[in-house]
Each structure stands twice: as structure tokens, then as C-alpha cells.
Amino acid sequence: MEPGSDDQSDEVDLARLAALSDGIFAVAMTLLIAGMPLPKSMTELAGMPLPQHLLTLGPALGEVAISFFVSAIFWQRHHGFFRCLKRGDAMLPWLNFLLLFAVALTPLSTYLLGNFSGDPVATCLYAANVAAIASALFLLWLRAAFRPDLLRADVSGTRIRRGLWGAGLATLVFLVSIPVSAVSSAAGHLVWLLIVPAVLFVPHRLIGSRRAREAAGR
Questions:
Q1: Residue 192 vs residue 25, higher pLDDT
Q2: Of the segments 9-23, 60-74, 79-93, 196-210, which one has the largest average pLDDT value?
Q3: How many CB atoms sit inside 10 A of residue 47's CB?
Q4: SS3 string of the chain?
Q5: How many domains does the chain fold into?
């Protein structure tokens, strides 16, 4: 169907799609905590004092915290994308389902990361999982860029470019961390820290610099 056609047969209910997305994010983020390897009884401690056992959970808890706040960043970016939409087309839900499938896998990849701390394979799998979320978000923004009729009238080209840059840089951060993690799991974790400036600050500066150059050239 051509953009702007009056045929609404391929449209989707954005409210239901957003509600489904929020639900899957919420369940996945909750399961991150539920997957913590806690003892069910004193017999499982094998004589180890409970405080000492809880200290051994530190690395797993750290991985859960990283995954939780990475998921929170993606939920915020995903929510921002949906706020820009006026309507949806037939392709949009499937791109969104791709993102949600990757989100649903995060408890599994986080469990492996926490229980096999320092193992390059577990670290690479988690990085690939998050890269899949970021790349799906990039595809959603790319779809919106090619179908501006799906967007609200007040959504500017600058907002679209910021969304593309943010999702694209997040994808790049986690893809780059995969070969780094294969050499050193700890180094891969350090690369992940780049997601904060990559998603929250760099796109704004890049778009701002471009606008400044365009204004100077007039």
C-alpha cells in the first residue's frame, strides 16, 4: 500500500501493542531477579553461614543490576519511539515482536552471565542478546524514517535522526564488545559502559553539531 493511502486495513492498535510491549519488558525485568540462585533451605548451604553465602552472590547480583538498567534504558527508548507514532502499519508489529523476543531472552542470557561469571561465551551471548534489542529498535526507527506518515505531525526529522543514532550506536557498542569479550570478559563489561553516553548524550551532540554547521552555512 502506498504511504498516505486511505485504506486503513493494515493499521494496528498502537495502544494494545504498547501495552504488550510494556508487559514483556516488565516480566523480563522481574525474571532477572527471580533467576538469582538463592538457597531454598539451610541444607543447601552445606554448613556455610548464610551471610557468607550471600556474599558469594555478589557477582551474579552485579550482572542482574547491569541487565536491569540496560533493559530500563531500552524501555525508555522504546517508549519514546511509540510516543512519536500516530498510527502503525502491518510491518511495525513484526519489527516490534523481533525486539520483544530479544527482550524476553534477557533473563536467560543474564542467568548465564551471572552463573558463569568471567566465561567469555556467556559474556558474548549476553552482548549479542542486547545487540539484537538495539538493532530491532534501529529497524523500528528506520521504518518510521521511510514511512513518515506513521509519525505525528510534530515529530521532526531531528527527532528521527536522534532515534536512529541512539539505537545504531547502542548496537555498535554491544557488537564491538563481542570480540573484546572473547579475549577478556572484564574488558567486554567495560565496553558496555559506553552505552550510557552512546544512547543518552552522543546523538544530541551529533545532531546539535550538524544543525550548527547548517546554520553557519546559510
A1: 25
A2: 79-93
A3: 6
A4: CCCCCCCCCCCECHHHHHHHHHHHHHHHHHHHHHCCCCCCCHHHHCCCCHHHHHHHCHHHHHHHHHHHHHHHHHHHHHHHHHHHECCECCHHHHHHHHHHHHHHCHHHHHHHHHHCCCCHHHHHHHHHHHHHHHHHHHHHHHHHHHCHHHECCCCCHHHHHHHHHHHHHHHHHHHHHHHHHHHCHHHHHHHHCCHHHHHHCHHHHHHHHHHHHHHHCC
A5: 1
Residue 8 lies in a domain: no
What is the extent of the structural domain holding 41? 14-216
pLDDT in tens, 203-214: 656 555 555 455
Q: Report yes or no on 6 lying in a domain.
A: no
Q: Which pLDDT band holds residue 114 (cuts at 50, 70, 90)?
A: confident
